[in-house]
Design brief:
alpha/beta, 60s Ribosomal Protein L30, Chain: A, Rossmann fold, 3 domains, 5-stranded mixed sheet, 15 helices, 15 strands, 33% helix, globular
């Protein structure tokens, strides 16, 4: 069993590598792309787009584009979204030239400032005119950066989601939970950069490394069909011991899978595992079963497995999923709210019983504060009794089932109807 994946490796077939470019937009995006370690992925291209000439000059990225020279004179957008947008608009042609003919574009951008928040949607608009699949890793500002930056980031995130095939949000506040209490500011940003690195490397591995069960660009497209929707991304890594269980545990506690606005159910899900030759096939089946159970993909699971000969008792699991923003809603009939008021004496009378308790003996009931001072009546003054639908019209999903009869009484009929209890409306 220990060499089951290895025994299948001879069946793997070579494939043409897709053309992939990772583009950092703005200062944070450029820094994150510059920090990537893409050893073994020489075919992947890196590029940077920014309004700050000095930041571009200090970047190790080879392909650089300074946008809005006539707008910012190379001094950056200064956190102003309007300036960042004008800069990007002025260089749409240059952005199109940088994108060129690609199969996959991975945008990396930090939202909350002027350049990234404004330029990323324009880069996405230009990319949408090509046949490329476009994904975006977006870092969101720390809470201490202020409400203004948060508002800018939220607006940009909503706009970008409509333009690309998948957006993976990376809230700095959430990722910082992995650090120590005395983590420095630089190390805090480095944590976010490491998560971007894990995501980018997982994507590159599944597309560029020969797999036992190959995932190609078509597999990725099957998950990200069309622009819009919300994306779920998470990774789990473990080495030694029960590394399969530990990798699954690491995946399920991944902070990116516990964001407040995450979709509760995925329409499509991609699972890719990278393991050594000692990974048993039976455990691969366990991985897919556990992941699909946890994320509740309703329609489709795309699975891939990559053999890394350098790994031993080591496993990495990557999950990518997507849920559409708009779901088909079951129409619900809108009715006006009514208040049903039935006194204890009326209930007793309706049941044919006599009550020895007078109204004066009953304790006063608390009145909810929202009912105090209510001026509008909820029904007409001349309405004495609330009328309900006929019983035959109420069975809905159960209309083809037998009635629930007991001692010559139809229990599907509400008690107040069977026993002639009148329900008065408060007027």
């Amino acid at each position: 069993m220990s060499h089951e994946l290895d025994s299948l490796s001879s069946h793997a077939t070579p494939r043409a590598d897709p053309k992939i470019k990772i583009i950092g937009v703005g200062g944070a995006g450029t820094n994150a792309v510059g920090a990537l370690n893409l050893e073994g992925f020489d075919s992947v291209q890196l590029a940077a787009i920014n309004t700050d000439a000095q930041a571009l000059a200090s970047s190790s990225i080879t392909e650089k584009l300074m946008i809005g020279r006539s707008v910012t004179r190379g001094l950056g957008a200064g956190g102003e979204v309007d300036i960042g947008r004008a800069a990007a608009e002025s260089d749409r042609d240059a952005i199109a030239a940088l994108i060129g003919d690609l199969d996959l574009i991975i945008m990396v951008v930090g939202f909350g400032g002027g350049t990234g928040s404004a330029a990323a949607p324009i880069v996405a608009e230009v990319a949408a005119k090509t046949d490329a699949l476009v994904l975006a890793f977006v870092t969101l500002p720390f809470s201490f950066e202020g409400q203004r930056r948060k508002s800018i980031a939220d607006e940009g995130l909503g706009e970008l989601r409509k333009l690309v095939h998948g957006v993976i949000p990376l809230p700095n506040d959430v990722l910082l939970q992995e650090g120590e209490e005395d983590t420095s500011v630089l190390n805090a940003f480095a944590i976010t950069d490491r998560w971007i690195g894990r995501g980018v490397n997982s994507l590159c591995a599944m597309l560029l490394k020969t797999g036992i069960v190959n995932l190609d660009l078509g597999s990725l497209r099957s998950v990200f069909q069309g622009q819009g929707g919300k994306t779920v991304f998470g990774t789990g890594v473990a080495t030694g011991g029960d590394y399969v269980k530990d990798a699954l545990d690491d995946l399920f506690i991944c902070p990116l899978l516990h964001l407040g606005d995450r979709p509760t159910q995925l329409d499509r899900i991609l699972v890719n595992v990278i393991g050594g030759a000692d990974l048993p096939i039976s455990r691969v089946n366990d991985i897919v079963s556990q992941v699909s159970k946890r994320f509740g993909s309703r329609e489709d699971i795309v699975f891939g497995a990559v053999l890394d000969q350098s790994r031993c008792e080591s496993l990495e699991i990557c999950v990518l999923g997507k849920a559409e923003m708009e779901r088909r809603q079951v129409p619900v009939q809108q009715v006006k709210p009514v208040e049903v008021v039935t006194s204890p004496s009326e209930v007793m009378e309706g049941l044919g019983l006599q009550s020895e308790i007078s109204q004066d003996d009953l304790p006063l009931q608390p009145v909810h504060e929202t009912k105090l001072g209510r001026k509008k009546k909820l029904v007409n003054d001349d309405q004495d009794e609330f009328t309900f639908n006929e019983v035959d019209a109420q069975r809905g999903y159960f209309e083809k089932t037998d009635r629930n009869d007991y001692k010559d009484e139809d229990l599907d009929v509400p008690t107040y109807l069977r026993r002639g209890i009148k329900i008065k409306l408060k007027v």
